[in-house]
UniProtKB/TrEMBL annotation:
Protein name: histidine kinase
GO terms of molecular function: ATP binding; phosphorelay sensor kinase activity
Top-rank EC class of the record's enzyme: transferase
Domain of life: Bacteria
Coiled-coil spans in chain: none
The organism of origin for this protein: Sporolactobacillus shoreae
Compartments where located: Cell membrane; Membrane raft
Amino acid sequence: NWETRLQVRSRDEIGMLGHSINDLAASLQRYRDTRRAFFSNISHELRTPVTYLQGYAKVLKDGLVDSDKEKKQYLSIIYQESIRLEHLINDLFALSKIEEGQIKLNMEWMDLKTTIKTAVQKVKLKAEEKRLSLQLDLHDHVPLIRGDHKRMEQVLLNLLENAIRYTEKGSVLVRLTTTKEATVLSVSDTGIGISEEELPYIFERFYRVEKSRAREYGGTGLGLSIVKKFVEMQGGTVRIDSQIGVGTTFTLIFTHEKKQKRGGMS
Ligand code: ADP
């Protein structure tokens, strides 16, 4: 426990040293708290799908289900939970690499249009299954930006999957435009929206709006923290506009100046 604080009485070097030690102890304590919360979250997130997998697999294995319809239903739950587990593991892996500073971006001049089209192609089926229209509005003459196309695709996939996941009817729109100052990419949906009170937290690891509801939607609560980190590593910023029951727009802004300054980094 790092709550023990040194009593600092003097204002000389020894006193300053005392303050520094206290600051250090406080930040160590914060680190330990976050770490504890993080691991307890991971354990919970991993345990839940595993419990489902075991439960349904056991019922099937023990021959407790007769009807084919029910068997199919249980198998489909097992399948979905295993996909969920796979996503969670992938997200955790990506996050841990980011945090250890182990991710090396492969910065190159890239055409966001191509990345958008690739990502959209991958989520097309999901949108169709929910009868959502998936629209593109890609302006001509958008300059190339410097970025890592694999990471950018991951960012787009996370945003698109969320847009589809949290939208019951209507559309998902990807727009690419350019202004004098920046290249602007946005993903908008006509979905359930996020309340103003919750907006500040949604980039936090494991944060989900209304936890009980999140289970029915799937998801890991890690997607947006990865989005934010990847975008910032590529010199961009993320903003959100959302209104409950109306929809959500995530906007990625890549300032031209910034891009040039960071051009040499890779
Ligand atoms: P998850 O894997 O749970 O979707 P994310 O980190 O991607 O985790 O998102 C965090 C939370 O933000 C989600 O659980 C959801 O409540 C909310 N959210 C994200 N994207 C949207 C969206 N397009 N519309 C409404 N809510 C969203």
